[in-house]
Amino acid sequence: MSEKSIEELLKKLAAGAQLSEPEKKEMKDYKFWKTQPVPSFDETITTQGPIETKTIADISTEPLPLLKEFEWADLDINKQEDHDEVFKLLYENYVEDADSTFRFKYTKEFLDWALKPPGYRRDWHVGVRVKATGRLIGFIAGIPTDLDVRSQEIKAVEINFICVHKKLRSKRLAPILIKEVTRRVNLQGIFQALYTAGVVLPSPVSVCRYNHRPINWKKLHSVGFSYLPDGVSETQMIAKYTLRNQGKVKNLRRATLDDFEGVESLFTKFQKRYELTQKFSTDELKHWLFGDASIKNEDKVIHTFVVEDEQGKITDFFSFYLLPFTILDNKEHDELGIAYLFYYASDVAFDKEEKEGNQLLKKRLTELIGDALIIAKSLGVDVFNALTTQDNNLFLQDLKFGEGDGLLNYYLFNYRVKQIEGGLNDKNHVDYNDVSKMGVVML
Ligand SMILES: CC(C)(COP(=O)(O)OP(=O)(O)OC[C@H]1O[C@@H](n2cnc3c(N)ncnc32)[C@H](O)[C@@H]1OP(=O)(O)O)[C@@H](O)C(=O)NCCC(=O)NCCS
């Protein structure tokens, strides 16, 4: 694989992005999005709040009409057959590289975690089937989430996993899926949404970039995922990315539900550093950081670790989730382990000695996430991804994360707010001298 195609793959891995470098069309060419309550590119935003105001009474109780060949599917992903259909649609059509070598492995555990947080609604798992065969060819999901946008609290949903079968692309099915999920969400009195995409749409509230830290460089190279730069030997590359066997952080251990209160209070305080965050209820945070407690450690999707000091106080935590790739047509390997950095917090951020530039936090996060890499390796992870969200820019370079090619755009539906720093400089590259104000990590 050429260097270019690897970068393209990483980009897709990052954001479900499209293959070509995202190009911004003119507003008038966004035939669908120009009809939606979203800010246009050239708008100077001076006020903050909803773009249009509606009430439930304004919303149709009838599903949107579909072409006669299709019908809306009432999916229940608690049912094995519905779950399998969603899995198959995403597995075969969500994102893959040009050679069809890698595919996301959305396990049952992953989909349960991603699509069934507390308060989830079955009717927000929206499917489209071919009437004649019953085959699922479209999907979009909404999950409830309350947001804090620059100190304004809004009830919202997160929209994710929009997917149309490859054979039915460019037929304007995506706008119908988006409008139908919007209608169903509106009927519950919710009029705002958060979503991300690799593609440029009107208009990002924040732009972040993915970064990749090879863990098993040899394997990444052998499956065509990482390339050997000119003038460097394989041995040098392996040596560059070799991790210590033992972590550095004292009293670091896997979190248990008994740690929850400590984690919650630390997290809530830490999240105040950012301008866009989720307002998790206790049950939601439990779900997102602890997942299904009955799942064995080696099968878990979400992995959370804490540091407990001698007084029994939780001083730090970090979490990452696993979403591997299935590798097709490779004799040696059938899976690529991929970890994504999720939420973290450390109480050094509140230290009186902490100065502008976050020197204490930089040191602490470098130690913590450095240990996360070692733990991830023990769980079979081959590459560890992190965005430029949160305070990630403080440790990316020291921990040998390489800048990815993929940008991740964050969008708010029916809400206007001034841009939120995503940790990039004016050329959209990682700003190692500054941190982002984006506190949301979406799957
Ligand atoms: C994303 C996907 C559903 C779009 O469907 P499509 O058949 O390519 O496009 P359609 O003809 O149905 O619709 C085109 C409209 O959808 C918009 N669109 C495309 N991708 C979008 C996305 N990820 N989010 C929101 N809108 C999107 C386009 O901008 C266009 O609207 P416009 O005329 O205002 O510009 C489809 O390409 C797909 O399944 N891709 C693989 C999975 C994926 O990448 N999902 C997105 C992850 S962020």
Automatic annotation (TrEMBL):
Localization in the cell: Cytoplasm
Source organism, top-level taxon: Eukaryota
Domain Glycylpeptide N-tetradecanoyltransferase C-terminal per the UniProt entry, residue ranges: 223-441
Catalytic reaction annotation: N-terminal glycyl-[protein] + tetradecanoyl-CoA = N-tetradecanoylglycyl-[protein] + CoA + H(+)
Keywords, in A-Z order: Acyltransferase, Cytoplasm, Transferase
EC numbers, comma separated: 2.3.1.97
Top EC group: transferase
Record-annotated Glycylpeptide N-tetradecanoyltransferase N-terminal domain positions: 51-208
GO molecular function terms attached to this record: glycylpeptide N-tetradecanoyltransferase activity
InterPro entries associated with the record: Acyl_CoA_acyltransferase, NMT, NMT_C, NMT_CS, NMT_N
GO cellular component: cytoplasm
Gene3D superfamilies: 3.40.630.30
Function: Adds a myristoyl group to the N-terminal glycine residue of certain cellular proteins.
Assembly mode: Monomer.
PANTHER family xref list: GLYCYLPEPTIDE N-TETRADECANOYLTRANSFERASE, N-MYRISTOYL TRANSFERASE
Family the entry assigns: Belongs to the NMT family.
Protein name: Glycylpeptide N-tetradecanoyltransferase
Organism (species): Wickerhamomyces ciferrii (strain ATCC 14091 / BCRC 22168 / CBS 111 / JCM 3599 / NBRC 0793 / NRRL Y-1031 F-60-10)
